[in-house]
Amino acid sequence: MKRILIAGALSLMCVAGAAGAQQETSPSAAEIVAARQASFALSTAALGTIKTVLDSGRPIDGLAFTAGGLNRWATALPTMFPAGTGPDAIPSTKAKPEVWSDRAGFEAKAADYQAATARLRDAVAAGDTAAANEAWLATRATCGSCHDAYRS
Fold it and tell me: How far from chain centre, in Å, is Cα 5?
């Protein structure tokens, strides 16, 4: 019985030690900028893939994952611009200071992009090529309008 108690106590100490060794760390500003730049590159690739299939006349049912991923990115996009990740802190960012000084305008454009990607996702899911083409154009337009205002 004494051995069981000692083994149990040692096990608890090991678990407590392991839990204490795991520290939560927040990503640095440079890591956040790198993540958002990579996400924008993937977004561009997704838009290009969707356009290629739409222009080819092939069935669009294989685009559901890509269109859904684009919409998930659009939903998360505003969170990728926290304070301290602008050009004053990270010179390699292409984000203009207006992302932070005109946050309401930035978030409104991001919401437009998210809504457009949702329409694209839904049109693809429905297999409606004509609606997907229209939604792709709207997605591209909202993407570009944000770049015009908030990207250097």
Answer: 49
